[in-house]
Amino acid sequence: MGLCRSARPAPADRQGGSVVNLTCRANEANQFFRWAAQSMADDVSGALRADATTKERQLYDAYLAARRHSSAPLVALDERTFIADELSSNIGLEHRTIWRTVRTLPSGSRIDLAPTLSAMVIRVDEHDPSAGAVLEITAESTTPPIPSPPPALTSENLMHRHLSPLEVAEYEVVKAAMTAADGNKTAAAAQLEISRGTLYQKLDKYRLLDH
Question: Model-level pTM?
Fold first, then answer.
């Protein structure tokens, strides 16, 4: 089993960082090795958490809370810190660009990250914009919406296509008169102040004889 530890400055904040490499031959791996590796990872995680500032812990706690309630890709960020899960880290998001967009937005706001990606903003502290935010990322569907079928054509619609605006208006008046007269042509002609013969001509023209 080999163990090596090296320190180097972290590029984001220039604080000291470390890398731990725990290895053994494959034929020597056993349950103890896996326990030791997990224990060391937990110790490192705890040490990093203890070394974090109050705001960093607050941001990380908000990220974990969002993770418990969502299976979507998540990003947590403030001006200096950017936390991404495995899914969101493959999207190629740019920390500073996103922070400039979300730093003053309230919870519930939505932002566009890419042509097919959007995110909902969850503020860490609504009263302190510098506390950062968690972004719940949603991939938009690229399937174009299915257009609604055009309305069914009726004989009335087809006829209107060949009428002038004045004829359409006359058609509506004649039809309304026949409806008001309950189909009585004499009463409809009297209402329109035309003869029964003229009414018959119009009913035939507008296909209303069976009205």
Answer: 0.46
